[in-house]
């Protein structure tokens, strides 16, 4: 199986029903691990050697505490990162742009599914409007996918790529999906992501217009009472619930700051629920990381990503090549802001899409180590 096929299957599987996504991505990650040709391309990036220690830690801690759900999620996280590391190694510029176009195209299938689900719910439930999750298990996961696709469309349009009308069309359908999933914070995610794109690409006039439009929208929503953002009336209840969850997580971190209890520690430790649904995590990417892995595990886990983002920034500053880096930083900024109030990245479909976009840094890397590995891979394939 070639690197192009693996990348294509990864992108396509994201828009399948999530159980099928897990099967396809799990198979791809295991294939990468067991195949000598692909396995040697995993840990060739700066900081990835420390990530090996992180993998051991991710499995050892929940095993020690018998946190079996956390152990299973840890295995899934490792497989996802193996896939992401490999994608970074084999990604080319032309393939990256084609894959982004494929992602935009496939998002139309989930938009169509969401509209059909909305219609069926409306007919079968007396006109009641439910939150839509399409094939993504939860509306907030759907919202994260939708917001990311809109940022990709903005990237395609701002970098003057062909068929702009198509990306406007895709963005329009995903705006509809954004309203159907009724995820409040995805609006902020899209705003932040597009603003970062405009800033890095030095589109100062468009950035001014974008910020002005956001200011007008905020005025209409908060001062004129216009219902432009779904479920905004529910924000006070949501914030109060989040504050209680964050307080529980913070108290646990203060008592056990160093090692954590593995992934899904919040569910393992507290067994809390809301409206008869288990609260699976602390609804904060920052609290949850330390709660799950402790300070020691968090440092091990983040070491690779620190090295990664340094390389992205170096690409922007020294090489003056901001095209792919602008998308990577835009999606990252949006995810980090959204992560302050939720943990939508920890899912079968959202994390692979995020890692797929991060793999774009591989298009800019020309280190001798990667060049040699890629040359070996291409010779083997041919």
Mean pLDDT metric: 89
Cα radius of gyration in angstroms? 21 Å
Count of domain modules: 1
Shape descriptor reads globular
Helix content: over 70%
The main β sheet shows up as:
2 strands, antiparallel
Which stretches are low in confidence, meaning pLDDT under 50 for 5 or more residues running?
A: none
Structural class: mainly alpha
Number of strands: 2
Terminal residue distance: 12 Å
Can you describe this structure in just a few lines?
The chain is mainly α and 382 residues long. It has helices at residues 3-13, 18-34, 36-39, 48-65, 68-90, 93-124, 139-158, 164-181, 185-200, 204-222, 235-255, 265-270, 285-317, 323-338, 350-358, 368-381, and strands at 273-274, 277-278.
Description:
By secondary structure, the chain is mainly alpha-helical. It has one domain (3-381). Helices cover 73% and strands 1% of the residues. A two-stranded antiparallel ribbon has the order 1-2.
List keywords for this structure.
73% helix, mainly alpha, 382 residues, two-stranded antiparallel ribbon, globular
Topology (elements, then pairings):
Blueprint (H helix, E strand, L loop, with lengths): L2 H11 L4 H17 L1 H4 L8 H18 L2 H23 L2 H32 L14 H20 L5 H18 L3 H16 L3 H19 L12 H21 L9 H6 L2 E2 L2 E2 L6 H33 L5 H16 L11 H9 L9 H14 L1
Antiparallel strand pairs: 1-2
Helix pairs in contact: 1-2, 1-6, 2-5, 4-5, 4-13, 5-15, 6-7, 6-8, 7-8, 7-9, 7-14, 9-10, 9-14, 11-13, 13-14
């Amino acid at each position: 199986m070639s690197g192009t096929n693996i990348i294509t299957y990864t992108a396509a599987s994201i828009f399948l029903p999530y159980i099928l996504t897990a099967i396809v991505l799990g198979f791809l990650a295991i294939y990468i691990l067991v195949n000598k040709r692909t396995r040697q391309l995993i840990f060739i990036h700066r900081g990835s050697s420390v990530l090996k220690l992180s993998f051991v830690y991710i499995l050892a801690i929940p095993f020690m505490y018998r946190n079996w759900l956390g152990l299973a999620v840890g295995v899934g996280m490792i497989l996802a990162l193996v896939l992401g590391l490999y994608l970074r190694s084999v990604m080319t510029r032309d393939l990256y742009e084609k894959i982004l176009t494929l992602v935009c195209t496939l998002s139309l299938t989930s938009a169509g599914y969401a509209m059909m689900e909305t219609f069926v719910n409306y007919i079968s439930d007396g006109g009641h409007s439910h939150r839509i999750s399409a094939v993504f298990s939860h509306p907030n996961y759907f919202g994260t996918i939708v917001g990311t696709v809109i940022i990709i469309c903005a990237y395609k349009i701002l970098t003057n790529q062909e068929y702009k009308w198509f990306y406007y069309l895709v963005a329009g359908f995903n705006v509809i999906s954004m309203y159907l999933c009724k995820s409040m914070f995805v609006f902020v995610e899209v705003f932040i992501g597009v603003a970062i794109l405009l800033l890095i690409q030095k589109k100062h006039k468009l950035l001014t217009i974008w910020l002005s439009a956001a200011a007008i929208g905020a005025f209409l929503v908060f001062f004129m009472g216009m219902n432009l953002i779904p479920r905004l009336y529910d924000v006070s209840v949501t914030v109060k619930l989040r504050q209680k969850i964050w307080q529980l997580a913070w108290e646990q971190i203060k008592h056990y700051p160093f090692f954590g209890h593995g992934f899904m520690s919040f569910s393992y430790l507290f067994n809390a629920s809301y409206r008869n649904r288990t609260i699976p995590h602390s609804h904060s990417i920052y609290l949850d990381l330390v709660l799950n892995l402790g300070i020691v595990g968090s440092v091990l886990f983040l070491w690779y990503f620190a090295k990664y983002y340094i390389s992205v920034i170096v690409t922007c500053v020294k090489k003056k090549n901001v095209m792919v880096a602008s998308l990577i930083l835009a999606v990252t900024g949006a995810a980090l802001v959204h992560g302050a109030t939720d943990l939508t990245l920890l899912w079968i479909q959202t994390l692979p899409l995020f890692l797929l976009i991060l793999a774009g840094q591989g298009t800019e890397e020309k280190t001798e180590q990667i060049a040699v590995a890629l040359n070996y891979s291409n010779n083997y394939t041919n």
